[in-house]
Amino acid sequence: MTADIPQIAARTEGIAIRSVPRMRAEHVSVVYNGSTALQDVSLSLACNHITALVGPSGCGKTSFLMTLNRMTDLINGCTVSGAVQFAGRDVLDSQLDVVLHRRRIGMIFQKPNPFPLSIRRNLDLPLKEHGVRVRSERNRRIERALRDVGLWDEVKDRLHHSALQLSGGQQQRLCLARAIALQPDVLLLDEPCSALDPMATAVVEDLIRKLRTRYTIVLVTHNLGQARRVADDIAVFWSEGGPGYLLESGAMKAVCDQPQNAITQSYFQGLRG
User: Fold this and answer.
1) What is the mean pLDDT of each run of 10 residues along the chain (273 residues)?
2) For the domain that residue 228 is a member of, what is the CATH number?
3) DSSP readout, 139-171?
4) Tally of domains in the chain
């Protein structure tokens, strides 16, 4: 947690929540080739909280997530406006060191994407690329990251085997280990369980809950049950055939028990979206 961002009171739809934000988006809009996908989103992400981003497909959840670590830079024709405050500066500043920023803001995608390399090399390579030159330090970080995601005992005797031989759930945990080996501040999870079976999903959900003590986590999910199980806070995104927007946000229990917007209530009841 940085001293650059003061404690604030976030108020959304009449619900006030005291929290210390790790990141704060201010009037963020995302445009693809002239078409606005997300419009005027302001949202605080509390330090060491899990914030679930929910809502129907096409309402801008992933677009918002990608602005937080500048993955939008990699999309031709994409422009982002507004501001995203993190560690005392605007993430969208053109002078930002994007490589360093992405080390601090790790991202896990829907489908596990291990490198077609050995299990060990999947973690060793990014550590080298980010300046960890001492082999013993890389080995220490690799073991710790694999222990953190519950993989060490499963793979310690086959670290030189291909990562592609792992199960889907193991591959996703390996990708998470790859991110946390770089010692990030924030983890962005884009539907990390959508390609997993129920048992693997339960393992990953347990892992996410444990990691919240060390990281600020932002989770995109279409599974409201999953959001309720793992998240502290929730942000409901919506679209009415036009750009996506933030409908309502706040503490998970408050929004679930007493949604302030009729659309939110219908969505939670399965009547919308």
Assistant:
1) 32 38 93 96 95 95 96 95 94 93 92 95 94 95 96 96 96 96 95 91 93 94 94 96 95 92 89 54
2) 3.40.50.300
3) HHHHHHHHHHTT-HHHHTT-TTSBGGGS-HHHH
4) 1
